[in-house]
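It would be a great kindness if you could assist me with a short task in structural biology. A protein sequence and the structure tokens that stand for its backbone fold form the material at issue. I should value your view on which stretches of the chain appear to form regular backbone elements. The record follows directly beneath this note.
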Amino acid sequence: MNFAAPVIEWAALTPLLIVFGAAVIGVLIEAFLPRRARRGAQIVLALTALAAGLVAVIWRWTVIAESGPSGILYSQDSGGSIIQVVEDGPALAGQAILLVASFVAMLVIADRTVPGEDAFAPSGATAPGSPDEARALRAGFEQTEVFPLTMFAVVGMMIFASANDFISLFVALEVLSLPLYVLSGLARRRRLLSQEASLKYFLLGALASGFFLFGIVLLYGFSGSLNFGQIAAAVPMVAGGDFLLIGGAILVLIGLLFKVGAVPFHAWTPDVYQGAPTPITGFMGAATKIAAFAAMLRVFYVVFPGLRWDLEIVMWVIIGLTMLVGTVLGLIQTNVKRMLAYSSIAHAGFVLLGVHALQPDGPAAVFFYLLAYGLATVGAFAVVNSVRERDALGHVTSEAGELDQWKGLGKSNPLLAGAMMVFLLSFAGIPLTAGFMGKFEVFGSALRGGLAPLVVLAVLCSAATAYLYFRIMVLMFFNEREDEEGVVAVPGEGLGAVAIGIAALGTLVLGIVPGPVIDALTSAIQFLP
């Protein structure tokens, strides 16, 4: 048996190498730098790497615009090149949007309140309420490990968007998931709820990975290959239905649908969104969805286009249920983070319309929606992170999670409430916000793809979910707070405010002048292999 050494295009790996290098250096900082110097070094390193990675992605975009898409990691055999990781327009578009959302989310993760308190437990390994945790708190310990963990998750997400075979896709899935399992259990307060969220996310994530692996095995048994292009080439060779192909495709989709929180694989979403540290919830809610939908686009457009009619009923049921469940259960929530969690489920259903439409403009519409949704999500959770409870002694405690606690926020802190209003209007799809243009593009693509009944349902669900968002706006601006001392908007060191400002400005600019971004994304679809 001859072994074909892989070919690596190192220049094309530049964005990945920058972020991965920062993650590795972050681990070394934790090992060798004095404790007091770690936080500042980690923040500067992470933000610089994410910005440099975005610049590198833009550079690579100009390269492939001139020379065309190519493989980053591939091997040569008698049949030609077998590409494991690809560099093309959709991969770079997904990575660019991911890095933008991750940069804004990292600002929120790095922010601390004025007393110098961040969102993370002083020692994640100690039992909640134990003497060891109390000693770590008094000693002023900080979990600066969250920065390299987050960077490793970003690396996995970037590979997830450009993987071109199922081995690379699975490795990327685990690289992005494992840090998130840990980060979800590191909340400073409500520690048991946080650890419960981490355990649920881990167990259900492991189950979804099992489905994903089993699906890969079936697809390999069908085609004799794990490469997307070779599996796609084998699909037309089937005379009639093939249970290995259909079964493998459905199981692979289960693994991807779990990551986007689609029904019926959504059970983890509200619990993890509520229990995880709020900055991590914002990062996870935006970045994970961007990466998962980027991978799903490649799977649908490259591997499964010939299976559209075989998967038609399955996808219609999943999309319909995802929109309905996210909308209906979101209407009855009284907790802000759980409400936003069910809202994210409904939005996943909207994005799935663009994925399943299989139209030439589908990827551009999906990517624009993900950019709009990612900015609004990170910004909304940054606001949630700033609205805190205050006890009778005046001590600031955990987030004010109940909706009724947000009464009068527009009067006490109009800038914060105004930013939250911008994000909520974008979620609702109100004109002059990025969310409106995202829904317009995705719904239009779905109509051209023959999904008119689902689009009608999506419009109805979108109108119903508007109640979720307007309810919060009414509480903030048109209701008086009964207890003026019960809730306070806590000022931070400035990074969180910068993140909220960037997200709000981006949401408005993309809603008012969406053309350049849509045109740039549309030019990326021609690079699909």
In short: The radius of gyration is 23 Å.
